[in-house]
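Re: the 153-residue chain
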Amino acid sequence: MSTGTVKVEGLRELRKSMDRLETKLQKRIYQKAAGKAGRLVVQAAKAKVPRNTGTLSRSVTARVSSKPRQGLFGVKVSVRGGLFASNRTANRKGRQGKDYKPDAVERYYRFVETGTKYHPAQAFLLPSLEDQRGPILEVFKREIAAGIESHRP
């Protein structure tokens, strides 16, 4: 499975300002910034995903996590499966019975992203991250600065 990372450097002033805030507030600011940055990647990935039924496109999502005490925060952009993602396709094709596999979309997106010996890769997650590196950094900086400004005494 392909993974990508964006490392942000040069934000010392913002980090020092964040350290002056309480932990709950830091976490809230980080989560808001990471959520907005993650949505940029999700939108780009949805635009690049190959469409057959649209299930894979509907399933691209972002999940935010943060541990401000350790200086860690991030967002995971991936494909979620389950009933919501696959139910429309299953009902439309009349497969709600024995053939219905709610987590199938979680399995097959990897084959689309990395390819198989029968089908070439049609990557959409990693190229979306690569394309959005600059905007992600700008959104992140802007949101953290706005969060600090709004909570300044």
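The chain has one domain: 12-150.
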